[in-house]
């Protein structure tokens, strides 16, 4: 389990979804960080002061990032 605290900036947080095939660098959009596709998922706009709890193994991604985007992750054992 990860507890994420947004310290500054904002982003669109997408989760949960179904892991998909890895994207090639040429297929990634400029606002996408690459990695695996997580399906349509559920989106939430997050910003400074928000706290997110991510269960183990749940795919997620940050998109449409407004910098500076800083966050603190506290990883807990599962």
Structure in words:
The protein is mainly β and 78 residues long. The protein has strands spanning 2-15, 42-47, 51-54, 61-75. The radius of gyration is 13 Å and the shape is flat. Residues 21-33 have low confidence and may be disordered.
Quick overview:
The protein is mainly β. The chain has no helices and four strands.
What general outline do the C-alpha atoms trace? flat
Low-confidence stretches: 21-33
Number of helices: 0
Helix-strand pattern: EEEE
Secondary structure: number of strands: 4
Layout of helices and strands:
Blueprint: E1 2-15, E2 42-47, E3 51-54, E4 61-75
Antiparallel strand pairs: 1-2, 1-3, 1-4
Give short descriptive properties of this protein:
mainly beta; four-stranded antiparallel sheet; 4 strands
């Amino acid at each position: 389990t990860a507890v994420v605290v947004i310290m500054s900036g904002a982003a669109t947080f997408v989760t949960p979804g179904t892991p998909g095939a890895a994207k090639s660098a040429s297929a990634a959009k400029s606002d996408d960080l690459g990695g695996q596709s997580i399906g349509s998922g559920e989106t939430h706009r997050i910003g400074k002061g928000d706290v997110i709890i991510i269960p183990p193994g749940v795919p997620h991604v940050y998109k449409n990032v407004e910098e500076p985007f800083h966050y603190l992750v506290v990883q807990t054992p599962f």
